[in-house]
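Listing 4. Sequential folding, example run.
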Amino acid sequence: MSARPWSALDARRIDAIVIGASAGGVEALSEILPALRAEATVATMVVLHIPRERPSLLAQIFAAKCAQPVLEAQDKDPIQAGTIYFAPPDYHLLVDEGTEGALLAMSNDEPVNFSRPAIDVLFESAADQYGERLLGIVLTGGNQDGAAGLQAIRRAGGVTVVQDPQEAQAPYMPEQALAAGDIDYVLTLGQIAGLLRTLGASGVREKENAGE
């Protein structure tokens, strides 16, 4: 299902992707992140709600699955194209403006939507930095985190995607994202992976990799 035709993405440059997930997120991310090709020049930042009290193994788990480098985000690191970043436990992940481009930033401010890291915090800060060059994706989860952030991305001119709630392991988060306002695309995980697979060296959707 989608509210807009794929042609709306033709010649659209995407410099960054932000993804939010909670319950069922590891399985969902395992279906879509490997679709990013090594030569794709997008930077991808992921917030997955995880326990605060122990170290995260997400970077190691997904490094073995993905063609792109996968790292745990570090404060003040420059954001590198063609890299996937996971938010660390118990810190909000933000996108900040540096003297030579966008930077990763960490915050231990109060939880948002009972979560730290919070999806909304990442999405809203990324929308400020990337505007229409941003793609935001909300996946399976059990609270409303990400709904407000997707609307911030839409207001900034970016592209918004929600996993089809009918296939989500925990449909509440996608349902809340859809209830918050208009969304560009409602897609299955297979369709989201297909979209990510089309992003190439210029950050523009390539039809030859879209099966069109």
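-- end of first protein; second protein begins --
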Amino acid sequence: MNPVKTDQRGTTLMELMIVVVTLGIMAAMATPRFLDYIPRLRTKAAVREVVSQLRLARSTAIAEKIPTGIYFNSYEGGYVVFADTVDVGSQLYDETDQLIRAAEFSPQIEMGYVTFNNNVVIFDADGSASSSGSVTFLSQDGEQLYQVSVIAGTGKVKMEEVAAES
């Protein structure tokens, strides 16, 4: 006679199905929240790109000993990185200046106000900036405001996240 085993271990098909259904329900609940977050991620990536380009302009100015700047085009929603070779010291972007890079923001990225003189910041060979100022960006959902600032004396570039006002 075979003894009946009462100490069996393992998972039944029913238990496995309960786990799969539970995970499916949790994933279905999380997906809309994640999709709401995507516009903020895109805006933050664009802002980080601007910070990167400002730092590159400063580094280029120091390395090449040529004033290098960025012009923020608030009408078309983009920026131009340039070497200030024409009318140096005027704090203006001239289309005949040496173009390093030009970029436009995605239509989902809203560039707010620019406080640099003539929408231009130029870095000198010592790394200092032509003026202190900032440029702001608003996430598509309107809930997150990003501000990129430059300090004139040091040329330091920083990004801050600020909760948008309702």
